[in-house]
């Protein structure tokens, strides 16, 4: 316990017959966090926030929540995928799926259309189960925004978004932050955004305690996101 750093995050109570306050606990060893703090300081930077990947994702999703509707995020990584559900800047639900880009057919690289894909069908099924659970436990409607992103280079996000939209009968959009995150002349493609998303989300932590910056996506653009263990 002496080597532990612990934080708690509120979770909206489920709409059961006996609703109870709920919290999510995050814990890490100081000895694991300290080297990152030291490295940041040695780089001439001053760390101001320490958060976890899940809350960093919540922060990014909050930028798109300008109403009371629900937002869902699908983050496809190399070996797993994450499904996160938020509403009005609050985290409701998170689920890790043991299905990542490595298990998905390589034909999804550089393709413009997906006609059939068993692993994507599994992701769609698990997403639907997650949405059903969210609706049942919190008496909330289906997500109005479903955002998609991957940390894997050359992953056909647009084609996958269209495929999942068809399977779910819901709109799935690809998240592209290039119009909203200053990056100068540096490359900032979708895969790089997926890799950096937890850092971007962590940088938004302070903003959420004040006013959350909101983003208006052009109607023609699709959206979504990704993360890592702890972001500083």
Gross morphology:
globular
Helical fraction: 25-40%
Give me the number of helical elements: 6
The percent range for strand residues is 15-25%
Q: What's the β-strand tally?
A: 9
- Major sheet size, sense and barrel closure: 5 strands, mixed
Q: Class by helix and strand content?
A: alpha/beta
Please tell me the overall pLDDT. Answer: 82
Q: Give me the side-by-side strand order of the main sheet.
A: 6-5-4-7-8
Q: Extract low-pLDDT stretches.
A: 212-232
How far from one another are the termini? 21 Å
- Rg over CA atoms, rounded to whole Å, is 18 Å
What secondary-structure arrangement, pairings included, does this model have?
Blueprint: E1 4-11, E2 22-29, H1 30-42, E3 51-52, H2 53-62, E4 70-76, E5 81-87, E6 90-97, H3 118-138, E7 145-150, H4 157-168, E8 172-174, H5 190-203, H6 205-209, E9 230-231
Parallel strand pairs: 4-7, 7-8
Antiparallel strand pairs: 1-2, 3-9, 4-5, 5-6
Helix pairs in contact: 2-5, 3-4
Question: Can you offer a commentary on this structure?
Answer:
It is a single chain. The chain is an alpha/beta fold. It has helices at 30-42, 53-62, 118-138, 157-168, 190-203, 205-209, and strands at 4-11, 22-29, 51-52, 70-76, 81-87, 90-97, 145-150, 172-174, 230-231. Strands 6-5-4-7-8 form a 5-stranded mixed sheet, with helices on both faces. Strands 1-2 form a two-stranded antiparallel sheet. A hairpin with a 4-residue loop joins β4 and β5. α2 crosses α5 and α3 (118-138) crosses α4.
């Amino acid at each position: 316990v002496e080597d532990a750093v612990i934080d708690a995050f509120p979770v909206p109570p489920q709409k059961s017959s006996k609703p109870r306050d709920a919290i999510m606990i995050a814990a890490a060893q100081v000895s694991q966090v300290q080297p990152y703090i030291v490295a940041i300081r040695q780089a001439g930077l001053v760390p101001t926030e320490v958060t976890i990947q899940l809350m960093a994702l919540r922060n990014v999703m909050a930028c798109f929540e300008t109403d009371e509707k629900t937002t869902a995020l699908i983050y496809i990584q190399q070996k797993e995928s994450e499904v996160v559900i938020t509403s009005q800047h609050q985290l409701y639900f998170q689920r890790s799926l043991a299905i990542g880009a490595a298990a998905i057919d390589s034909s999804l690289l550089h393709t413009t259309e997906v006609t059939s894909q068993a692993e994507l069908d599994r992701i769609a099924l698990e997403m639907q189960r997650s949405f059903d659970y969210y609706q049942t436990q919190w008496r909330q409607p289906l997500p109005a925004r479903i955002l998609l992103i991957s940390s894997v280079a050359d992953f056909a996000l647009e084609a996958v978004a269209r495929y999942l939209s068809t399977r779910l009968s819901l709109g799935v959009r690809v998240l592209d932050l290039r119009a909203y995150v200053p990056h100068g002349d540096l490359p900032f493609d979708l895969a790089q955004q997926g890799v950096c998303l937890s850092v971007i989300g962590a940088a938004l932590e302070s903003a959420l305690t004040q006013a959350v910056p909101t983003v208006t996506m052009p109607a023609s653009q699709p959206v979504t996101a990704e993360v890592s263990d702890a972001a500083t």
